[in-house]
């Protein structure tokens, strides 16, 4: 399966790219200005005036961004009712999913654990987009709730270093057309 | 008689920079050079391993997965150790102009860390250990035929030594800053913040105190989990709780990696003003920012466990807030304020000052990548992909490593009294920036594509990113090669100028003037005398009474109902042992704080330091079922074992009482904390 950029990832990339470019440009400008002579008192006065606004901006952005993302956590909640439970067991170096197929549109709860070491359950949709992940930890059960609407074969890749065959530890999960 | 006149040295610092540039003693220069040269040698070696791995991912060379993971483990542990060494040296050098840190402690830290690094080298290359430098338990004990038990033991011992060296360093920094500025809250600048002190400590002292506290915390956590895992290598009956262990591993791993940059920042507050000709002043915003960093550095680690859904949600939320919170002081009081110093300053561009400035941009850009990754819904799609590799390499290669080189360049430029050519600097910077950002750019893209990190074999169709990354990595290597060449030239000239001086010689017969080289007299800048440990952990009658009361509480660990209850699980059993240790520690602390006992014990700070490191470690090493289970049916031996736990605590408490009021209390608290964390992690 060929990997492809998902829409959320493209958006993240654009935001990061723009911010990185703005920062890089600022450092170029400051670096050029470093060669000039401006009285320190003036730099001090103007600089601290801007610094207060800069702090305020970061705090406002922080409240908005952190606040909104904390309202959109991927953690499962509630009971299994109305969900198809898929038991996922990881081990060196295999994935076992029971059942390994469901109908499209079903609400799925992946109950993910491991029989030996830590693994990472990375789920890729039939187009090769990484749609989410959860850790598989021995002795613990991590519950991941998803609704899979796209029929096809979903691939699972290990996202936690688990030993010699970590990079070839793959599994599959099928979503059949309804 | 011939007329002899000294020739004025060329200027490498800002004309006004002399005001912030005191003469350095021989110890400062030599220790600075030792840490910078050793650490950078390790960084360069680990960089070569990094290129080898990237070429393997690009299918250019055919390294087996077994060797790939050995190199991956060594690369991670070695890089962190290398940058830690240099940044420790840089902050020590910068701080010593105000605080009399002890050269002996610094050398002890050096040898502990170097020995630890060698142990990790042997464990990975010869022993085959390849569980990653974050060695998430229980992976080290599932080698899949790749490594031996002795390599596990050696790896854990190596990291224990590295953590021990950092502990020694942090304890000395904390002991001396609190003694120099009159207590912990003064050293942190909090009394200045509250308006009680008119003059605050300099920025590097506040930064160093914060780093020392967080460094001691993370070293203690490292000691708890690493001793537990070391015990597991010789007692397969000892189990480890993977979730608690993961918390502990990332608390110390994340903090160590993070602290390297904060250590460097402390030195940068001293170095940039020398090229900008403006002082970096301690303001109330600065003190408040570093107070925030003190908390955020410790609280942010849990973002490594976002995808462990069993971790309490409140912990994940705190971690997200702390991860963003950590950005604010960095962006406002460090990066922004340093650019304020540079703006319009007629900044003196030298090799060192260029690297210092470029490093600021690396921290800012890498920091944005880190903050994006620290938002939980985004981390859901980026966790453990190459995005993670991208952002930490951005601020490690393009900030911390550049600042490490800047520190060495600063030392050499000062001694050589010149810098390198403008063209040489420009080419070097261009190669490093193109290679560095190109390399991390390929990781950012691959991360967005969903390519998992730490893959020896890349997913189909993605090796092109690795190939492009490899090419950029080679460009970066050229840049660092060029940088090293310039540093070697500077080093030769620095050595020459350090040992000889050129003087103008006027020949009395001919009247001609020419330069001659004569041996330079050694400068007589004395090393400052260290402050003696100040105060006792428990001084006032009320404190001693509280200590005695805690001893009574500790006695509860011997009560039969408590002992019976502790048999319910291994964790409770270990908690009971931690209770015995707590009792001993409090007894030692109270006894050592009594004036009559303290006078008899004498100052003995080195013995105290040895006790607070060795006694808790030994206590945890024998706290494994293999040792105590056979004793459980023999009451006398079982009681003796419990009394041994008390004795280990007693030694720890007495040792802590020799370390002064602040560090003594903290050392005792951390020792008890280690035993509790150990109990929580083992099962």
Task: Explain what you see.
The complex is a heterodimer of chains A (178) and B (683). A five-stranded mixed beta sheet of chain A has the order 3-9-8-5-6, with no helix packed on it. In chain A, strands 2-1-4-7 form a four-stranded mixed beta sheet, with no helix packed on it. Helix content of chain A is 33%, strand content 32%. The mean pLDDT of chain A is 95. Chain A has two domains: 7-70; 84-176, Sandwich (Immunoglobulin-like), CATH 2.60.40.420. In chain A, β1 and β2 (94-98) form a beta hairpin. The two termini of chain A are 23 Å apart. With 178 residues, chain A is of the alpha+beta class. Chain A has helices at 7-33, 40-70; strands at 84-91, 94-98, 101-103, 107-114, 119-124, 130-136, 142-147, 152-158, 170-176. By secondary structure, chain B is mostly helical. Chain B has two domains: 17-106 and 255-502, Cytochrome c oxidase-like, subunit I domain (Cytochrome C Oxidase, Chain A, Up-down Bundle), CATH 1.20.210; 541-681, no CATH class. Chain B contains 23 helices and three strands. Chain B has a three-stranded antiparallel beta sheet. In chain B, α16 (541-555) packs antiparallel against α18. At the A-B interface, α1, α2, β5, β6 and β7 of A face α2, α8, α10, α11 and α12 of B.
């Amino acid at each position: 399966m060929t990997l492809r950029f998902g829409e959320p990832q493209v958006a993240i990339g654009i935001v990061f790219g723009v911010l990185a470019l703005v920062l890089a440009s600022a450092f170029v400008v400051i670096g050029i200005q470093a060669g000039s002579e401006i009285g320190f008192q003036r730099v001090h006065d103007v600089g601290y005036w801007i610094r207060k606004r800069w702090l305020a901006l970061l705090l406002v952005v922080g409240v908005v961004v952190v606040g909104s993302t904390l309202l959109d956590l991927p953690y499962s909640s509630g009971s299994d009712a109305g969900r198809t439970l898929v038991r996922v067991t990881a081990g060196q170096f295999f994935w076992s999913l029971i059942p390994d197929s469901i109908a499209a549109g079903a609400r799925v709860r992946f109950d993910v654990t491991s029989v030996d070491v830590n693994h990472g359950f990375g789920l890729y949709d039939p187009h090769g987009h990484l749609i989410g992940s959860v850790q598989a930890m021995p002795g613990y059960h991590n519950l991941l709730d998803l609704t899979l609407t796209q029929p096809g074969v979903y691939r699972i890749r290990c996202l936690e270093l688990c030993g010699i065959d970590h990079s070839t530890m793959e599994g599959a999960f099928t979503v059949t057309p309804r | 008689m011939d007329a002899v006149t000294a020739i004025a040295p060329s200027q490498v610092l800002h004309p006004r920079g002399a005001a912030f540039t005191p003469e350095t003693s021989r110890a400062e220069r030599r220790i600075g050079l030792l840490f910078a040269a050793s650490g950078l040698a390790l960084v360069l070696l680990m960089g070569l391993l990094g290129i080898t791995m990237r070429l393997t991912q690009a299918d250019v060379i055919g390294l087996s997965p077994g060797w790939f993971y050995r190199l991956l483990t060594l690369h991670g542990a070695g890089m962190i150790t290398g940058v830690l060494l240099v940044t420790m040296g840089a902050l020590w050098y910068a701080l010593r102009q105000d605080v009399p840190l002890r050269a002996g402690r610094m050398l002890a830290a050096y040898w502990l860390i170097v020995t630890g690094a060698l142990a990790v080298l042997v464990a990975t290359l010869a022993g085959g250990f390849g569980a990653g430098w974050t060695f998430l338990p229980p992976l080290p004990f599932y080698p899949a035929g790749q490594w031996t038990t002795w390599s596990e033991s050696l790896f854990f011992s190596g990291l224990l030594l590295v953590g021990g060296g950092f502990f020694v360093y942090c304890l000395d920094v904390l002991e001396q800053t609190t003694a120099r500025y009159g207590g912990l809250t003064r050293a942190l600048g909090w009394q200045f913040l509250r308006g009680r002190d008119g003059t605050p400590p300099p920025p590097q002292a506040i930064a160093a105190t914060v780093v020392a506290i967080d460094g001691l915390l993370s070293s203690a956590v490292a000691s708890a989990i690493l001793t537990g895992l070391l015990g597991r290598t010789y007692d397969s009956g000892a189990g480890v709780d993977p979730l608690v262990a993961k918390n502990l591993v990332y608390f110390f791993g994340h903090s160590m990696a993070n602290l390297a940059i904060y250590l460097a920042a402390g030195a940068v507050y001293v170095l940039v003003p020398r090229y900008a000709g403006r002082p970096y002043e301690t303001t109330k915003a600065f003190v408040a920012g570093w107070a925030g960093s003190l908390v955020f550095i410790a609280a942010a680690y849990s973002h490594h466990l976002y995808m462990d859904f069993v971790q309490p949600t409140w912990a994940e939320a705190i971690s997200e807030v702390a991860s963003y919170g950590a950005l604010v002081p960095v962006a406002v009081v460090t990066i922004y304020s340093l650019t304020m110093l540079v703006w319009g300053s007629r900044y003196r561009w030298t090799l060192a000052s260029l690297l210092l400035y470029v490093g600021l941009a690396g921290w800012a850009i890498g920091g944005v990548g880190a903050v994006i990754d620290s938002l939980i819904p985004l981390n859901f799609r980026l966790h453990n992909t190459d995005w993670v590799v991208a952002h930490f390499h951005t601020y490690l290669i393009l900030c911390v490593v550049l600042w490490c080189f800047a520190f060495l360049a600063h030392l050499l430029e000062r001694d050589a009294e010149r810098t390198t050519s403008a063209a040489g600097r420009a080419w070097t910077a261009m190669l490093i920036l193109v290679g560095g950002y190109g390399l991390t750019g390929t990781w950012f893209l691959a991360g967005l594509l969903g390519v998992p990190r730490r893959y020896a074999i890349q997913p189909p169709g993605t090796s092109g990113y690795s190939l492009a990354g490899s090419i950029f990595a080679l460009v970066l290597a050229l840049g660092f090669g060029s940088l090293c060449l310039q540093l070697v030239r500077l080093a030769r000239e620095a050595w020459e100028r350090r040992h000889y001086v050129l003087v103008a010689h006027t020949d009395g017969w001919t009247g001609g003037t020419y330069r001659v080289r004569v041996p330079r007299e050694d400068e007589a800048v004395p090393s400052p005398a260290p402050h003696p440990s100040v105060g006792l952990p428990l001084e006032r009658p009320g404190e001693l009474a509280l200590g005695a009361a805690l001893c009574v509480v500790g006695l509860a660990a011997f009560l039969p109902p408590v002992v019976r209850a502790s048999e319910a699980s291994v964790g409770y059993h270990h908690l009971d042992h931690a209770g015995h240790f707590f009792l001993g520690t409090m007894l030692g602390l109270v006894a050592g704080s009594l004036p009559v006992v303290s006078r008899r014990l004498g100052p003995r700070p080195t013995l105290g330091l040895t006790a607070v490191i060795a006694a808790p470690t030994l206590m945890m090493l024998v706290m494994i079922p293999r040792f105590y289970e056979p004793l459980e049916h023999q009451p006398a031996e079982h009681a003796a074992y419990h009394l041994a736990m008390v004795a280990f605590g007693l030694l720890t408490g007495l040792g802590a009482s020799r370390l002064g009021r602040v560090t003594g209390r903290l050392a005792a608290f951390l020792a008890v904390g280690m035993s509790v964390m150990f109990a929580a992690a083992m099962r």
